[in-house]
Amino acid sequence: MVLAPALFINHGGGPMPLLGDKIHADLTTFLRDEVKNHVTLKELKAIILVTVHWEENKVTISSGKHHNLYFDYYGFPPESYKYKYDAPGDPELAERIKKCLDKAGIESRLDSKRGWDHGVFVPMMLINPEADIPIIQISVLSNQDPEQHYKLGQALYEFRKEGIAVFGSGMSYHNMREAMNSRNLKKVVNKEFDDFLNEVCTAESEEKRRKGLISWREQRGASQAHPPRAAEHLMPLIVVAGAGRSAPGKRIFNWDMGGTFRVSGFIWKDE
């Protein structure tokens, strides 16, 4: 079996990538047309998708055969509340993931009821509109502890060896107040922090990656990119980087939204 990839994607603002929003055009194009250049979807047995929009005090794993959509956004056009994405769940795989996390000393629980939030269905409707790959949705931790998230990724690596991809859905920059206030500056406000993420995620040394991401809060520009106690959008990247294990990551997406802030996407494919 080919080692399945670990992929971090930026999902954008609510349903905007699906609504034809001009500011999101490059992101929509990447998700719809370019992810398939890096991920061979037909080879995947399933996707474990870690979503920023599900925060719990212990890792929570979707375990139903089917999950309805959870429209966890507000104030958008009526059509954005009528989307359907009918990919199956996989209760047996969910149970196996829980057992794997138990073995790794990571507290977890199963949830067969919660719907798939927009961190799941918005990017997946673009990446795989056929909806024929089972998805297991996994929460991030509300404590936003980077070491625990990296450890979660290390545990999930085992499933990559079975042809099960690990996706993380978040945003590598998420400070909407700063972004709004900086619209007229005509510069990217988070260049230093984005450069840091690229350096650690593509490092040849796994230890450099692990230490760098665990200490990310100490980096220049970190608190501007992800304000204190509001770093949830970075956690899926840390999980995916942990699932990369010994391989260096590769940046496959680098986008300046509105010319104000920069987000990056990464993939880990090889041993």
UniProtKB/TrEMBL annotation:
Residues of the Extradiol ring-cleavage dioxygenase class III enzyme subunit B domain: 34-247
Organism: Parnassius mnemosyne (clouded apollo)
GO MF, one annotated term: ferrous iron binding
Name recorded for this polypeptide: Extradiol ring-cleavage dioxygenase class III enzyme subunit B domain-containing protein
UniProt keyword annotation of Zinc present: yes
Assigned keywords, A-Z: Metal-binding, Oxidoreductase, Zinc
Highest taxon of the lineage: Eukaryota
Keyword Cytoplasm: no
